[in-house]
Structures are given as structure tokens and as C-alpha cells.
From TrEMBL:
Domain Butirosin biosynthesis protein H N-terminal intervals: 14-142
Protein name: BtrH N-terminal domain-containing protein
Coiled-coil residue spans: none
Record-linked InterPro entries: BtrH_N (IPR026935), DUF4872 (IPR032369)
Origin species: Actinomadura fulvescens
Domain (DUF4872): residue spans on this chain: 155-324
Domain of life: Bacteria
Signal peptide (UniProt feature, chain positions): none
Pfam families xrefs: BtrH_N, DUF4872
Length: 333
């Protein structure tokens, strides 16, 4: 059995921030999960519907692996990414890192991991791997999955080779700090303003505050969108609250990030943004509950109410991000 020593195998709420936490703590940089998410400019929104989807998807973060790239750039970390179409080369890339005493991040399809009891294809899942033997790989996943876990090498290979939405070509990655670990405090404002700018100026109407507004109109039709509302609507609500989002479609994480920033920076704009995300987080949880109730009861009025709240959320989050964008221009020391 080969394992990396001194691994802090702490599971968090979200898969990508969990893996990033494992890799960075091994480099001597221990940041909270909200700070990892916020410094990676992770918050976003997407309303995603297409012919190959059985039901619409509401996403609350940037696309898979963008958070990792953002965090590496923000903290001036060396990010080494390896991708290949060869399963043999893919394994050699991972084994070489672990043999050298470095944990490695993997992007894969969670469907094939032995410990996942809910078998749903998701090609944007991320784990940190820190060891292996002849039969199993040793990984760190989210707290709700169990933290430090093992999965068969066969299942891991299938998960890494999977193709479909959000998958990557056997992607593995490592992070390295240059010299002493960087101070995140100096990078808070650039990370917040980058996130706010992207949210306020989405390239298409499905993203950012425009996407939330669109969702508010379309969610009212969801009972007609499915032939099994008792399955699809509660599942959509579960994905918003429980599927590694930290609750409230990642708004709880961003709320807590802004609160942590408020202990480091004295800014009225920051306090305004934080207060609005406190409100937004509560409302997102209410939307999820209404969607679940609509599926269970068949009551369309629940979706009408959810749509109205989403309209409010579009405005609230737009105002929050407008305040946070001003951090870059009017920062109070």
C-alpha cells in the first residue's frame, strides 16, 4: 500500500472545495471552505435545459474546475493539470504523484465510485486521492459521502474514463505554493469583484441574475415539463439543498465567505452584500421546499409562489453584486 503522509482527510460540503482543501493543507495552507469557494469566485447561476436532459437543472456555481483555476490564479499557485485519452497514462500520472508524496485531485463521474449509494451520472465530481494498493484507491470526498474512503481501482478507472456532460479526459491535477503560503487577505477584493462582474454581465440569459429571472418564469411550468412530478421535482429540490451545495444552492457558502471577509475588511459595501446574501440564502431554501411540495402534491400554486420568489432573488442578488462590485472602487482600509 502506498499513501501520502500527513494527509488531513477532512470532508467538507462541496466536492471541489473538499479536494482543494486536502491539496492545500498538504502544502501548509489551511483555509475554510467558504474562503476557498469565495477566493475561487465560485458563485454563479445557470438554468440548464436541453433535449438530452430529462428535467431542467438549476446550478449555483461556476462550471466544474473553473473554481480550481480561479483559486490557483488568485493565490498565485502552480496548477499542474494532466489529461489524456489513455487509461494507462492516466494511471501513471496519478501514481507518480502519490509515489512522490503528493496528493492529487481527480475529476470523474461519481456514478462509478463504489461508495456512492445514489447512482446518478455526474461527470463534474472531484475527489482528492492520497493512496492506493493492489485493489483500491484511497480518496477524500465530501463530509456527507464519508470523508476518507476507498473505492476499487476498477470503479475509479471507469469513473475517470466516463464520457458525457461535464466530463474530462482522465483529468488529474496538483497544486503547489511558491515559497511561503500566500496571504489570502490581499486577494479578497479581486476575487469578489471578479465574481460580481461575471454575475452582473452574463453572456446569455440563462446565467447570472438574468438566469434567475428566467428560472422564475419557467419554473411555473414544471408540472407540465415532466411525466413524473413526484420524482423529478423533489429530486430538483434535493439537488439544490443537499447535493454538495452547502445548502441554498451554494448561497450559504457565499454568505459565510462574505461574513469571514467582514472580519478582515471594514467596508459598507461588503456589509451590504453580506446582508443581502443572508436574505437570499433563506429564500433559496424556501424555493427548494416549494418545488418539492409541488411535486409531492401536484399543486401548481407552489410553483407560482416559487417563481415569484425567484423574481425577488434575481433583484436581491443583482443588488448584492452591485454593492460588492463597488469594493474595487471604494474600499475602506
Amino acid at each position: 500500500m502506498t499513501t501520502v503522509v500527513d494527509i488531513d482527510a477532512r470532508g467538507m460540503q462541496h466536492c471541489e472545495t473538499t479536494a482543494l482543501g486536502v491539496l492545500l493543507r498538504h502544502q501548509g495552507l489551511d483555509l475554510s471552505e467558504p474562503m476557498l469557494f469565495g477566493l475561487g469566485s465560485g458563485l454563479s447561476f445557470i438554468y440548464w435545459d436541453s433535449k438530452n436532459l430529462g428535467f431542467p437543472f438549476l446550478g449555483g456555481r461556476v462550471k466544474p474546475f473553473e473554481l480550481t483555476r480561479n483559486l490557483a490564479a488568485t493565490l498565485q499557485l502552480e496548477l499542474l493539470v494532466q489529461e489524456t485519452t489513455s487509461p494507462r497514462k492516466a494511471w501513471e500520472n496519478v501514481a507518480a504523484s502519490i509515489d512522490a508524496g503528493r496528493p492529487v485531485g481527480l475529476q470523474l463521474d461519481s456514478y462509478y465510485l463504489d461508495y456512492f449509494s445514489s447512482k446518478v451520472h455526474f461527470g463534474g465530481h472531484v475527489v482528492a486521492m492520497y493512496g492506493y494498493d493492489d485493489h483500491d484507491a484511497y480518496v477524500v470526498d465530501t463530509e456527507q459521502q464519508g470523508g476518507a474512503l476507498s473505492t476499487s481501482l476498477t470503479g475509479l478507472a471507469q469513473a475517470r474514463a466516463a464520457r458525457g456532460p461535464m466530463t474530462a479526459r482522465h483529468r488529474s491535477f496538483t497544486l503547489t505554493t511558491a515559497g511561503s503560503p500566500p496571504s489570502p487577505q490581499e486577494q479578497i477584493v479581486p476575487a469578489i469583484t471578479a465574481c460580481a462582474d461575471a454575475f452582473l454581465n452574463p453572456p446569455i440569459a440563462n446565467l447570472g441574475h438574468r438566469g434567475i429571472e428566467k428560472a422564475g418564469k419557467l419554473v411555473r411550468t414544471w408540472l407540465q415539463r415532466t411525466d413524473d412530478p413526484r420524482r423529478d421535482l423533489p429530486q430538483a429540490a434535493l439537488l439544490m439543498e443537499k447535493a454538495g451545495t452547502g445548502g441554498a444552492l451554494f448561497r450559504n457558502l457565499y454568505r459565510d465567505f462574505l461574513a469571514e471577509c467582514g472580519q478582515l475588511l471594514d467596508s459598507g459595501h461588503l456589509r451590504t452584500g453580506h446582508g443581502l446574501y443572508v436574505e437570499a440564502a433563506l429564500l433559496w431554501t424556501e424555493v427548494a421546499a416549494l418545488i418539492a411540495k409541488a411535486g409531492e402534491s401536484g399543486d401548481e400554486q407552489c410553483l407560482v409562489q416559487a417563481g415569484g420568489i425567484l423574481g425577488d432573488l434575481s433583484r436581491i442578488e443583482r443588488e448584492a453584486m452591485q454593492a460588492l462590485l463597488r469594493l474595487g472602487r471604494h474600499r475602506t482600509p
